[in-house]
Design goal:
With 216 residues, the protein is α+β, with helices and mostly antiparallel strands. Helix 5 runs parallel beside helix 7 and helix 7 packs across helix 8. It is globular and about 45 Å long.
Length: 216
């Protein structure tokens, strides 16, 4: 059965690989599963056909036969559980990898995304600078804790896993702030993720959509 995912027709990240379909693309590339992409406009994302798949009108969605999923974390977990390559065979190591997936999407990423909300939606408020400073401090605390845990290891828990895929994806969102560079081992960790052939294929595929939309 053909796997079909949805993605932005015109991604607001301008081809930087931050849109959440990137994680699903990356996971599918890691496990060697072909897939098709259905591109959606912002208008189409709010129409009944898409809302039947994603009740909040977001991307990505995942369809395979009668199965339809939404939420990129859930989709990546499904891919990792169904296909070899993203979760260890050992039950305890598998559980730890899944724990890191949840840590990435529940503990790390919301703090980083909060900074984006402050910058884009609250920049005209009189308390903007103070609020941004507080958010940056929270990000630094999270990064410090993760940096201490990672140490000089290559990946979070032995071999690369879906936990690393999600964590690298979350940390990429902090790169533009410059804060990530304050933690050299985390910056190097992210660079290792980007250097994986599967990541490069996924990134190039997402970038090609943006490039086509920009020149079309």
């Amino acid at each position: 059965m053909t796997i079909t995912i949805t993605a932005f027709e015109r991604s607001p990240d301008r081809g930087k690989g931050l849109a959440r379909d990137m994680r699903v693309r990356w996971a599918l590339e890691e496990v060697g599963q072909p897939y098709e992409v259905r591109l959606l406009s912002f208008k189409a994302m709010k129409e009944p056909a898409h809302l039947a798949l994603q009740p909040f009108g977001q991307i990505p969605t995942y369809e395979e036969g009668d199965l339809a999923l939404f939420e990129s974390g859930a989709v990546v977990l499904h891919i990792a559980q169904r296909h070899a390559g993203l979760l260890p065979d050992d039950a305890d190591a598998r559980a730890r990898a899944i724990t890191w997936m949840f840590a990435a999407v529940s503990t790390m990423e919301p703090t980083i995304v909060d900074r984006e909300i402050v910058r884009y939606l609250e920049g005209d408020k009189p308390w903007y600078e103070e609020r941004l400073s507080m958010v940056d401090d929270r990000i630094r605390r999270r990064l410090r804790d993760l940096s201490n845990r990672l140490g000089d290891a290559e990946w979070l828990d032995g071999a690369f896993s879906a936990g690393d895929l999600e964590m690298v994806s979350a940390l990429l969102r902090a790169r533009g702030s410059g804060i990530l560079d304050e933690y050299p081992n985390l910056a190097a960790y992210v660079a290792r993720g980007e250097a994986r052939p599967a990541y490069k294929r996924a990134f190039d595929a997402q970038l090609a959509v943006f490039t086509a939309a920009s020149t079309g």
